Amino acid sequence: SRSINLAVIPGDGIGQEVVAEGLKVLSAVLPQDVKLETKEYDFGAQRYHATGETLTDADLEQLKGHDAILLGAIGDPSVPSGVLERGFLLKLRFAFDHHVNLRPSKLLPGVATPLAGQPEIDFVVVREGTEGPYTGNGGTIRKGTAHEVATEVSVNTAYGVERVVRDAFERAQARPRKKLTLVHKNNVLTFAGHLWTNIFTKVAEEYPEVTTDYIHVDAATIYLVTDPGRFDVIVTDNLFGDIITDLAAAVSGGIGVAASGNINPSREFPSMFEPVHGSAPDIAGQGKADPTATVLSVALLLRHLGYESEADRIDTAVAADLTERAGKPARSTSEIGDALAVRVAG
Amino acid sequence: SRSINLAVIPGDGIGQEVVAEGLKVLSAVLPQDVKLETKEYDFGAQRYHATGETLTDADLEQLKGHDAILLGAIGDPSVPSGVLERGFLLKLRFAFDHHVNLRPSKLLPGVATPLAGQPEIDFVVVREGTEGPYTGNGGTIRKGTAHEVATEVSVNTAYGVERVVRDAFERAQARPRKKLTLVHKNNVLTFAGHLWTNIFTKVAEEYPEVTTDYIHVDAATIYLVTDPGRFDVIVTDNLFGDIITDLAAAVSGGIGVAASGNINPSREFPSMFEPVHGSAPDIAGQGKADPTATVLSVALLLRHLGYESEADRIDTAVAADLTERAGKPARSTSEIGDALAVRVAG
Ligand SMILES: CC(C)[C@H](C(=O)O)[C@@H](O)C(=O)O
Ligand SMILES: CC(C)[C@H](C(=O)O)[C@@H](O)C(=O)O
Q1: A3 is annotated as contributing to ligand binding
Q2: Which of A146, A148, A191 is closest, CB to CB, to B151?
Q3: What is the pTM of this model?
């Protein structure tokens, strides 16, 4: 019989609330014969304040035993900027080699968007997750003086770029439009830019059916608001991916519905699924948070584990729910979760 | 008697056409007693193909003699990506220490925007121009092999950050709303992030009337499409500034009306003014390019040289012209230039 052994990290702020709904929908969608085991972990601001720990080696050992990880949100204003981001979120991505950061964007009919004319939006960003300016390489000299110099080193390897580019080509190949866009800034960041562009061009030869193009990251932000329909699959570096996926979320229904997967395709380590939004401390504990992004992250999780039809059922339920929302009064976090649980079970 | 000794660099593609209109409007707006001298330079793709040169030391010596530089656009698909960008555009910014890259965004009534609901947009981005990931620091080992490693080093100095932050506070102080937002990614790029944040906080003490806030660059792209009215002055790093100003241009009337100044506030070297758009080879030579961004860059140039009322007249003329455009058939490059020249003269 099948089973899913899930690590659950509610985290900070609205993380608790949205994860509860994600689990509700997960339980509702799974067939009877699939045994769902969950173990909750208390990472985040509270544990940091209590113990000074963000993510220890022992924690990583424990997490390794799971099939996948569902995370709500990590981060709180009481913790200095960077401590939980570098000490937990990025540490986990690097430790488990989550090199494919998958972020789909789809604007459903009737869903609010800041863009005029309700354009068609249906693309997925494959963001590199373990290299680029995120490695923590760099340093500071003469800190706090008038002569301080601070550096950040973007590290890009053929190994790291090729595997994510290849993953993106596979995804593009599997989609109807079969189009892949490389987003970089190869006219200014020429060292990394050449590496990315050369590998992209080389791998493209193995995928003759995939149409390719290249756009500078600055121009990509223009297209995301003027012609988002031009994108099918985008592959890009860690930092550019961070920036354009927030914009992509904003134009395709908002950060409340943007899901993401931090994926290790080799399955050597568990992959981690989380909403793109943060912990939103200003609305935490009020039942106001939209759990949709977490529920969609559960769909990505299921697809990663091979539960295709269950993932599809969640996507369909969310699409129906989003389309029906327009013009109705706002529902609470658990009301939305309940509605989605009913739909996926039904 | 007063005089302006201007270096004119039409450059590639539509550069020639838009610069002609910029000069037309400049001549029309200047009072009789101001002597305008211009010298044209042939930088760009043609010269590169003919001589292999992009910008020599002798060129820089010549350019130094001018009061300011007006540039159309540099770049052509026939030149490998990066050659003209690094060899000309960035070389010039670095050589003349253009550390304040000024990019205003204002959405005028009736002007087309991809955003629904015609939001109020009126802010200016102060982008650092001589540091960050743009320095060309970095390198490649094992090029072209499966073991290639390419690095890009973002270099940030207290000297470089403080002067641009100070410039931004001055600009915020002079505006009615007196609000300054720092945009960075200090939770991930912690070395550079601490430097920027600390200096921003320190300088803020000297400007008690200026309201300050901080936003991560990814979140900034969200606000630029959902709530652009929250911005008054933004100060940010070279790369983040590159990205968000293209997005800012897109939402506030398009890249056809986005002006920029590469400014050396000390006036030790001439400052350079250029439209944010590129050379657009696909429409070059057809009289289709909108010269408005170049004309607005001329206004920034005049303001930099102390011709306040002339700069204001250009801004007013452009605002009137843009508002009148809505719903009318498109005009040619020179028709727009003519209309603006008539308005500023009148
Ligand atoms: C919180 C931060 C470390 C993270 C990132 O920059 O990757 C977030 O912005 C995201 O996009 O998941
Ligand atoms: C052409 C390129 C070097 C330049 C930059 O990245 O600064 C351009 O995008 C700009 O914004 O002026």
Answers
A1: no
A2: A191
A3: 0.97
